[in-house]
Specification:
The chain is an alpha/beta fold and 328 residues long. It is 35% helix and 28% strand. The chain has two domains: 131 residues, ornithine cyclodeaminase, domain 1 (2-Layer Sandwich); 181 residues, Rossmann fold. It is globular, with a radius of gyration of 19 Å.
Length: 328
């Protein structure tokens, strides 16, 4: 018999608190660094006619005993139709038999595990008493990144910039209430990243929004918007000054923020300090001084989705949640 659990977004949400997502992502990065994960290249499909894009990420994770595939879309005209700007679905299979185990909403998992990834990176790359955060982008990731950081750091101030001022102001009101800290909407990207400890970039940009001369000593940057060919958020000159850590060098050099600095010859692959899992395992060091600039280039790994989806799947089984569908 083959029975599959189907889980809605609300059910997924009830099974994945941020604290659990942070632990799951930490485990995922370690497993990747230990060679326990097999991941083919991300499949990227541009649907230009409808201003959309679709990414397919898959992987087999020996430590979790799972195969996972996520199909995630970004359709930027959807809000005009009253629809979400994108959606994701995750499918889990048993690694030993390939039998399907679960089908679940992947949009919330993607949002939470990506936010968690920023917190995990900051935990070893940012200054320990980081309190001030500058955010470029007031969307889902602009929120999730800060919510995750708040789990690990004593945040006191957040500054946010979005090209749409109304969205920045909405963000400030909402996040101030959720975090109970000072949250300010600012009118330039430079103001957002000035006099902060951690910078978060989370926009689907194809040109630099944060310039080299704006980044002071000691800042940590979590760069999350560049996850496809041509995408860019940072001035490539920043790479020459920063200690660069990636989630996957193989992936980031093609679709991550470092793609531009590599193409321009500003850095070489040998200049990349580490993959984040190597630091978490103690194979390489994280931040070494209060003055150094650190940068985490994240493109998102299938194993993060697998690890977070596994947390949801295990808890859903315990709580007898979701719809059961017999396929065989």
């Amino acid at each position: 018999m083959c029975e599959v659990i189907v889980l809605s977004r609300e059910e997924v949400k009830s099974c994945l608190p941020m604290s659990d997502a942070i632990k799951a992502v930490t485990d995922a990065y370690k497993a990747f660094a230990e060679g326990q994960v097999e991941m083919p290249a991300v499949q990227h499909l541009d649907v230009a006619k409808y201003r959309g894009e679709v990414d397919i990420k898959s992987g087999a994770a020996e430590n979790f005993g799972l195969i996972g595939t996520k199909i995630a879309s970004g359709y930027y005209d959807n809000p005009k139709l009253g629809l979400p700007p994108g959606f994701a679905v995750i499918i889990l299979l048993d690694l030993k038999t390939s039998l399907p185990l679960a089908v679940m909403d992947g949009s919330y998992i993607t949002a939470v595990r990506t936010g968690a990834a920023g917190a995990v990176a900051a935990s070893v790359l940012a200054r320990k008493e980081s309190k001030r955060v500058g955010v470029i982008g007031s969307g889902t990731q602009g929120r999730m990144q800060v919510l995750a950081l708040n789990e690990l750091f004593p945040l006191e101030q957040v500054k946010v910039f979005n090209i749409n001022k109304v969205n920045s102001e909405k963000y400030a009101v909402e996040m101030a209430a959720r975090l109970e800290v000072d949250v300010q909407a600012v009118d330039t990207a430079q103001k957002a990243v000035s006099n902060v400890d951690i910078v978060i970039t989370a926009v689907p940009s194809k040109k630099a929004m944060v310039m080299d001369e704006w980044i002071g000593d000691g800042i940590h940057i979590n760069a999350f918007g560049a996850d496809g060919p041509g995408k860019q958020e940072l001035d490539p000159k920043i790479m020459k000054r920063a200690k660069i850590v990636v989630d996957s060098l193989k992936q980031c050099r093609v679709i991550g923020e470092i793609q531009h600095a590599l193409k321009q010859g500003l850095i070489q692959e040998s200049d990349i300090h580490a993959e984040i899992g190597e630091i978490l395992l103690g194979k390489k060091v994280g931040r070494e001084t209060e003055e150094e600039i650190t940068l985490f280039d994240s493109t998102g790994l299938a194993v993060q989705d697998i690890a977070a989806a596994n947390v949801v799947y295990q808890l859903a089984q315990q709580k007898d949640m979701g719809q059961r569908v017999k396929l065989l």
